[in-house]
Amino acid sequence: MEKRNNNTVYFVSVIISVIIAVWGIFGSESFGKLANSLMSWVTVNTGWLYLLAMLIFVIFALVIAFSKFGNIRLGPDDSKPEFKTLSWFGMLFGAGMGIGLVFYGIAEPISHYVAPIAGVAPATEEAARFAMRASFVHWGIHPWAGYSIIGLGLAYIQFRKNKPGLISSLFIPIIGEEKVNSGFGKVIDTFAVIATIAGVATSLGMGTMQINSGLSYLFKIPSNVTTWLIIIIIITVIYTWTAVSGIDKGINMISNLNLILAFSSMLIAVIVGPKVMMANSFVGAAGDYINQFFKESLNINPFGDNTWIQGWRIFYWAWWIAWAPFVGTFIARISKGRTVREFIFGVTLAPAMASLIWFSIFGSMGLNLREQLGIEKMTEMAGHPEIALFEVFAKYPLGIVLSMITIVLLCTFFITSANSATFVLSMFSQNGDLNPSKKKMLVWGILQAVIAYALMVSGGLKALQTASIAAAFPFIFIMLAICMSIVKALRNELKIKE
Question: Cα–Cα distance between 482 and 175 in angstroms, integer?
Fold first, then answer.
């Protein structure tokens, strides 16, 4: 595989990351003000662009999968998949969704129920139905389509064309290798590193807050910045160790454990929860999701209130775009030997279905208590999403067991996301090397944790969300350009075969 000097990306991105971390910890007030200004500008002025871009990614991925390009193999024609399908699925699911599913599985439907989009009355049957549909939209095919674009391009360019595993390499088909190897390529790769750091730090911060809330709820451990720091240090040691151990050992092992824990928690929830409501929620929300797919994808009001859209959908789309370089690179790394069609269907449909089942189960557990808890209590829970899950579990049999499994699951999701990101960041800053140095993994492992902590102390959940939205903005244009590059590369591939 070709190498190019990429130390500039490493040093520049480390310096930027350190500045962000130091500023967030020691200048939290000014950092928070700037972050809020950026968030306000991006969501108000460019929300339409996020909506349009994410729909384009979905259409693009499905068109490529069903096209004549679908049979092209991501590697030599005689290559076979490196990992078994279940292990492959476990790794990409853990890296691509991670802590977010646990954090929002119960809290998000409750939030939409008590404070739905303009035009829907809160705490009504219509609000409950909207809550499930909105959750399906946010966690369905859209994020995975975005991941698949970068993943597909990188798997093709690395394993079939033997180019470095860098985001900038995806531009070779449209601007040529000479320009990619210049300053342009370094800027693109630096953007990829910063977007990845912001997106992953958001999840790590959310995970830390929820782990602390669970420990506080169950064992009265105080919920404060000191406990956050202790949790982050312990988890950082584990995820850095598993990243350094490599994909075959540490990352694969934790991903498999993740699947077991996630399946166990869902099984117990189904046993003790409202089974009929769960089944009805899945079928009904899936029907609404499919029926209103394009309407929801482009839902923005040019004449009225877009507060809900800006606070939820635009945040999610920005969050997924911020995650795309990291998740796309990681799933490319583990997808050698699969065909284009197999890759897109595996990356988009299977994990999206798992996410929808997750929300049908846990969302129903929360909404099932709407009469028992009342609107006031549910509004309070929506305001503290990190603890809502534990409060809901407490109302069901085996609630303590579910809470304990969830805390462990949060830790394993935390580890899976962070060790995957550590591995990818090290690849980005080492010429796209598929086996980056342990020293770089150590540096990035620590920096991710420090930045997550910095964002938490500078404004909690809002600061975490703001970081991902601001960092993702330039990546919209990068990903749209990557779509054009993929088409050109695949067309050239078929011409060569002919």
Answer: 11
